User: Which sequence fits this backbone?
């Protein structure tokens, strides 16, 4: 039962596209990640994914539109929907998703990170 | 699939201690609420509750300590833990909790609000 200071937690994150866990509740993780550049197209068969931009700006490319999210904006990518996150400049993002969610969803790519208990910050 | 702008959503909220739903994912709701004054002591038997302060400052009183949360700080109240949120000045808070969570947990008080599909903003 500790206070989670988002700024302090983001300071602990070095790489991009490597979500770190900051809280667990009700079978869900709260994760933080820095985005920069282009992630891979993927979808999550069984899990919806919540994005909240804490700092900066990201685009979530969908097959038929682009969702631009600025600081203080959120978006849910429903399960099964292909998406590709992109950030021109470094952005800080909070994610809510089930514990079982693999970051690259239905694909294993060079960007895939296994999220397990080693990934707490 | 719409962008959720937290500032715009908070502008739609008039009262205090009346959570409004802004997103649903994986059996959980993302809710926003304005806090001011003192809420009731309560606990949630089966649900952990995530608090993120978007603006202002709140205290979460526990039976043995006080957790002070400022903008950009988060806290998880584990299931079963009695807590009493307090805010001296108006604060804006994001909550993440299961759909079934009743705001006042194990107690029905004058502050209890039934959260259902009428409570989306």
Assistant:
């Amino acid at each position: 039962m500790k206070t989670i200071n988002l700024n302090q937690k983001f300071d602990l994150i070095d790489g991009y596209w490597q979500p770190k866990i900051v809280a667990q509740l009700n079978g869900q993780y709260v994760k933080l990640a820095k985005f920069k550049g282009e992630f891979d197209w993927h979808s999550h068969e069984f899990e919806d994914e919540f994005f909240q931009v804490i700092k900066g700006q990201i685009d979530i490319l969908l097959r038929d539109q682009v969702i631009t999210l600025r600081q203080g904006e959120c978006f849910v990518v429903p399960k099964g929907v292909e998406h590709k996150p992109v950030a021109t400049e470094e952005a800080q993002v909070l994610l809510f998703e089930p514990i079982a969610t693999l970051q690259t969803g239905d694909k294993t790519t060079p960007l895939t990170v296994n999220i397990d208990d080693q990934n707490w910050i």
